[in-house]
Amino acid sequence: MSILIKNGRIITATDDYIADIFIEGETISGIGKNLNVPAGTVIDASGKLVFPGGIDPHVHLEMPFMGAFSSDNYETGTLAALHGGTTTVIDFVIQSQGKLLYDALREWQGRAIGNVYSDYAFHMAVTDFNPQTQSEIKDLIEKEGITSFKTFMAYKGSLMIDDRQMVGLMNEVKKHGGIVTVHATNGDIIDFLVTQNKAAGNLSPLYHYLSQPEITETEATGRFIDMAYQTGSNSYIVHMTCEGALNKVRDAQKRNQKVFVETCIQYLVLDASVYDRGFESAKWVMSPPIREKKDQTALWAAINQGIVQTLATDHCPFMWDDKRKGEQDFTKIPNGAPGIEHRMELIFSEGVNKGKISLNKMADITAASSAKIFGMFPKKGTIAIGTDADIVIFDPVKKHVLSATTHHHHCDYSAYEGHEITGKAETVLLRGKVAIDHGNVKIRKGYGQFVKRTKLTNIL
Ligand code: URP
Ligand code: ZN
Ligand code: ZN
């Protein structure tokens, strides 16, 4: 099996040039001008951009959450990802409080193995740090290749851990070369505001937004950063949304502390006006909520300033019937929204095409940085000889409109209904196979492989 991609404009986090790519088996074996090699398949990429396959570092597939399951399973979710040019996703295994981390890992493996189209990895969410779970960390990193440990400073009563557990976990993860990641919002303040709103009869989705003001994220972000500083742990903050939190990262940089930051595409392209639509706003009930226009500006700037390194989706769709469970009470609306398919096309259309970020920056935040931070580089995240042939051939001028009638998410609405896009992932290769060709699926379910990640010795 060999494939020759001819005359594409190759974009990585650092390069931009026109050349041919020769693929043998699962990896890239040659890159050059006018390569003259016999190939089983030749793809003409003239006029096209050629990106490294996207890595979405934050998705929730078939996740049990708030009385429902996120509606994309490993099959539908990873196929939707591939359609949009994302070839690797990192999902969250979520420990149940009182149980082992390995119990949760077996449960998530049971859902994923054999069902996956794209490649995938796992973060381990630690919701109960105690001597038993502490003793599992080393094996998770060294035997399972799970090097990142997610924590929640919110979702009081189900997922949240306290600061004592946080520093304990950081200390243990540091010993074994991993990284601690966090959903950084202040669960106690949110809990207080939710209780206050409910007592006042404020029950619509708007009050989800009003119960999680910027200060709740700013405060928790600063506290997490301080704990990481104190323990010396590698640290990564997921789905950052706002100016106040970004400023906490800037403060950390002043003392030469390295903190990695992720934002999500919805926080760059949507604003809080989505909460002015009555119960329809339940589509955008997620945590943290969509913020203000000034926060969008701050996030775009932070990407260019190198304060934000990665772009995710936090893909966590729920069917409308599940969202409707909160018609009388916003706290019963399962938190999360669909997006796994649209990240690459939206960032190109809204970011590159509108002059907010460069093509190199796009390749960096959609692929390279996640691969580096999470121990997959250079196997994933770039286009170079010897790397996995995960490649997106992207038409930069093709126009289309996002809609629930055409998306591949298993979700009966779109968070971006009617959004006009310039740019389309046309052909997507995963480990040397054409996976998607002009919307047609060319691989079978189960082709996706688990990516065992390496210890973090050399990050960014
Ligand atoms: O609302 C969200 N983000 N749902 C998924 C869980 C999380 O907090 O990431
Ligand atoms: Zn979260
Ligand atoms: Zn999430």
TL;DR of this structure?
Helix content is 30%, strand content 24%. It has 460 residues and is an alpha/beta fold.
How many beta-strand elements? 19
Which small molecules are bound? N-(aminocarbonyl)-beta-alanine, zinc ion
CATH architecture assignment name of one domain: Alpha-Beta Barrel
The portion of residues forming beta strands comes to: 15-25%
The total of helices stands at 14
Q: How would you describe this structure to a colleague?
A:
The chain is an alpha/beta fold and 460 residues long. It has a domain at 53-373: Metal-dependent hydrolases (TIM Barrel), CATH 3.20.20. 30% of the residues lie in helices and 24% in strands. The protein contains 14 helices and 19 strands. It has helices at residues 74-83, 101-112, 131-134, 137-142, 163-175, 187-199, 206-210, 214-231, 243-254, 265-269, 293-304, 320-323, 343-352, 359-373; strands spanning 2-11, 16-24, 27-32, 41-44, 49-52, 54-59, 64-65, 68-69, 86-94, 119-125, 148-152, 179-183, 235-237, 260-264, 310-312, 391-401, 420-430, 433-437, 440-441. The strands form 3 sheets. Strands 1, 2, 3, 4, 5, 16, 17, 18 and 19 form a 9-stranded mixed sheet that branches. Strands 6-9-10-11-12-13-14-15 form an 8-stranded parallel sheet. A hairpin with a 4-residue loop joins β1 and β2. The longest helix is centred in the middle third of the chain and has 18 residues, at 214-231. It starts with a strand and ends in a 19-residue tail after the last strand. The model has no long low-confidence stretch (mean pLDDT 97). Bound molecules: N-(aminocarbonyl)-beta-alanine and zinc ion (2 copies). One zinc ion binds next to loops.
